[in-house]
Amino acid sequence: MRSHYQVVIIGGGIVGTSVLYHLTKFGWKEILLIERDELTSGSTWHAAGGFHAQNDDPTIASLQGYTIRLYKEIEAESGQNVGMHMTGGVSLATTPERWEMLKAEKSRFQTMNMETHLISPEQIRKLAPITDVHDVIGGLYDEFEGYMDPHGTTHAYAGAARKRGGVIALKNRVLEMKQNPDGQWLIVTEMETIAAEHVVNAAGLWARKVGNMVGINLPVTPMQHHYLVTDDIPELAALDHEIISVTDLEGFTYLQPNRKGVLLGVYERNPRHWKVGGAEWDYGMELLPPDIDRISPELEIGFNRFPVLQNVGIRKWVNGAFTFTPDGNPLVGPVPGLKNYWVACGCMGGFSQGGAIGLTLANWMIHGDPGYDIFAMDIARYGKFASDDSYLKAKTAQFYARRFVLSYPNEELPAGRPLKVSPNYDALKNAGALYGVTWGMEMPQYFTPGQTDFIEKPTLRHSNAFDFVAAEVKSTREAAGMFESAVYARYEISGVDAEKWLDHLVASKLPKVGRIKLAPTLNQNGKLMGDLTISRLADDRFWIIASYYLQEWHMRWFNENMPSSGVTIKNLSDDWMGFALSGPNSRKIISQLVNVDMSNESFPFLSCREMEIVDTNAIIARISLTGELGYEINVPVSHQSALYTALTKCGKDLGLVNIGNRALDSLRLEKSYGIWNAEFTQGYTPEMSYLKNFIAYNKGDFMGRDAALKEKETGAKQMLVTLRVDTTDADAPVYAPVKHDGKVVGFVTSSVYGHYVKQSLTLAYVDKDVINSELTVDVIGESRKAVVLNEPAYDPKGERMRM
Ligand SMILES: Cc1cc2nc3c(=O)[nH]c(=O)nc-3n(C[C@H](O)[C@H](O)[C@H](O)COP(=O)(O)OP(=O)(O)OC[C@H]3O[C@@H](n4cnc5c(N)ncnc54)[C@H](O)[C@@H]3O)c2cc1C
């Protein structure tokens, strides 16, 4: 072992060894993995080793596919058997709602290039003859599922990495670490102190503790998980092949073949955390005592689903711990605020996701970009709020208990709420607000004026909240609506070099003083990094408005590209709030509150100005996401209540209503406006989306210009279009496939009912060569005719917002 390495990886589980493998494979040298004990000494050793490619997020699904395909490669490279059993697997539906959901899933998986099959109870019996199917409607079968040998797989990554020069130090715990002023990390271990340029925290069950060594508190915590393994089952021993894996979604259990018996795992509804801050340092390869009473309700369902279990011996009970994050996805990437400190932890499905984490992290470290849109795994999707123990416990318990429970897009789950609220929380609640949440901040979804006890039914179709949203849309189009913009992120950029810096960071031209610009920002590789709205308040002072939940992500991006002096960025997101007021009467409303001429001549579309409102200095921008005449009014939080009271009073006789996020979505799709994390992500490029129209290719150098120019020349295969979908009581789910002649030619990014234009509208990326052809979109598994609209469904010339 040397005293200096380029990278030190802490942790020799399935994730750490995959990171080691990928870094060495992609050509980095001098990589050391340090392991406290032996390889697999954390969660990895007692994992059931099951794997599958299915995931709600299409990028993660395709990366899980990558992980599974990689196993043959590392086996061949290392010579170590990975014990792969590609048995196939089925998810059961025992309710009509689940069956409908599985149909929708099947078509969504087609977008992800995954061919799954809906199969009958009889087919399930053939593939897994020990299953009682008396109440089964059908199942979703995927042949790309199975299980691995956890020990063999980890050693295969390690062996292949060693052959490529990777070094592994066992029985050597990392005790502490610090960063020198020159950026070099000093890692103090039981054996010696090692210097490294980069550190990767892949410490699994101990990741939170290893994070504490550098002053960070990661939103990750261990939870208990049980499975049992049976003795041989004569019915299975008599077969000359393995049965498939069976997941009983309504039964909270999964079953895998195991030698001539089976393994039955449980996702119980009453889960337990274990060592919330991370395992003890001396925790060995031990099992926790089984807690059979606690999991007995789910076990009972499992023993009825697979009746042979009632007559077979149990060879072993496993109660082990593995880590969860609030949304169940891993934590990957550079930790904001720490140079060259990376995380690869929080992984609850190491055998489906280990390869994905290694690949994307290695890409990121080497090329400055994970190579895919992995926001769903990015550590920067969370802020500090997510690491609070009570929040973390509530969210992870909710995730665990609902692992197999049907989730609907219109559901708002209760865990960890309310965490952050605006000063108007109670007032809006009294006005009938039904809240959702974004990044811990409560956000009205819609209002039920006069109905305090309204309960929305979870559904894949239009819900019983439909009429409330329709009324908000109508009022906004015909009078005025106000949306509380507590869920906007606000950044102030100032300083002598602010203009120069921002001009290089964004791809559009900067606005003149008093004006606003929509500004895409790209990374070096031409990938989208943001769709920012920039208001210029002075020569050297700018405001950026972006999505609230992207604060950590954007601040990391800004800081990574920040000069050492001349520019200051302030994140004002929790200091300022406001309302987005829009609709034909909005000028009359705002004019009562300010001493400024708000006429079109003196304050035209895309103007911004500081002005006094409700006794405070506000920043008011003439812009709207609804496509109507509108104003975004930003005030210090201290004046948020006063602003609400004043707007309500002045709008009373002008038809002003409260509107929520659902109405906003309907209004924006009627205008074909895209938003981040739907139409715009790191995975898409300007040439695909209409953001290319905002790029000033000739303004001089800017970040990502070469890549953007190259893409402009070659063009993109797909483009963003608006579709009118021929459907009645449901809109197309996100990622549903768009088809031509039965072939997938695109996918849905957003769908909503356009309440004012009375059409089901969808934004989708579609192959350019078929946009004038006959298209269909799958709506909950059924094919529906879709027509490309050549212009927005509402006010195509954009006259309303300019009036
Ligand atoms: C009962 C059970 C069943 C499971 N079934 C499945 C399944 O079927 N499929 C699936 O995909 N996943 C399953 N899992 C989850 C799976 O085990 C995890 O996703 C995976 O093991 C996480 O791997 P890791 O490398 O991130 O962490 P770990 O395996 O915990 O590895 C972390 C390593 O870091 C080392 N380390 C920690 N701190 C230090 C330090 N200071 N210095 C040096 N070394 C350190 C530890 O010794 C350890 O070896 C299961 C888990 C359990 C408990």
Structure description:
- It is built from 18 helices and 37 strands.
- The chain has 803 residues and is an alpha+beta fold.
- The strands form seven sheets. Strands 1, 2, 8, 9, 10, 11, 17 and 18 form an eight-stranded mixed beta sheet that branches. It has an eight-stranded mixed beta sheet with strand order 5-6-4-13-14-15-12-16. A six-stranded mixed beta sheet has the order 28-29-30-27-21-31, with helices on both faces.
- Helix 1 runs parallel beside helix 5, helix 2 crosses helix 9 and helix 12 packs across helix 17.
- The mean pLDDT is 97.
- The site of flavin-adenine dinucleotide has 42 residues, from helix 1, strand 3, strand 12, strand 16 and helix 9.
The total count of strands amounts to 37
The CA-CA distance between the termini, in Å, is 71 Å
| Bound compounds | flavin-adenine dinucleotide
Report the structural category: alpha+beta
Low-confidence stretches: none
Percent helix range: 10-25%
Gyration radius, rounded: 27 Å
Mean pLDDT metric = 97
DSSP summary: helix tally = 18
Q: Which secondary structure elements does this structure contain, and how are they paired or packed?
A:
Layout: E1 4-10, H1 14-25, E2 31-34, E3 50-51, H2 58-78, E4 89-93, H3 96-111, E5 117-119, H4 121-127, E6 138-142, E7 146-147, H5 150-163, E8 167-169, E9 174-179, E10 185-189, E11 193-201, H6 207-212, E12 221-230, H7 234-237, E13 245-248, E14 253-258, E15 261-266, H8 292-305, E16 314-324, E17 331-334, E18 341-345, H9 350-367, H10 389-401, H11 425-430, E19 433-438, E20 441-447, H12 466-478, E21 480-484, E22 488-494, H13 498-505, E23 516-522, E24 528-538, E25 541-547, H14 551-560, E26 568-571, E27 576-582, H15 586-591, E28 608-613, E29 616-621, E30 630-636, H16 640-651, E31 656-658, H17 661-670, H18 705-714, E32 718-725, E33 737-740, E34 743-754, E35 759-767, E36 775-779, E37 782-789
Parallel strand pairs: 1-2, 1-11, 2-8, 4-13, 11-18, 21-31
Antiparallel strand pairs: 3-7, 4-6, 5-6, 9-10, 10-11, 12-15, 12-16, 13-14, 14-15, 17-18, 19-20, 21-27, 22-25, 22-26, 23-24, 24-25, 27-30, 28-29, 29-30, 32-35, 32-37, 33-34, 33-36, 34-35, 36-37
Helix pairs in contact: 1-5, 1-9, 2-5, 2-9, 12-17
The chain binds flavin-adenine dinucleotide (FAD).
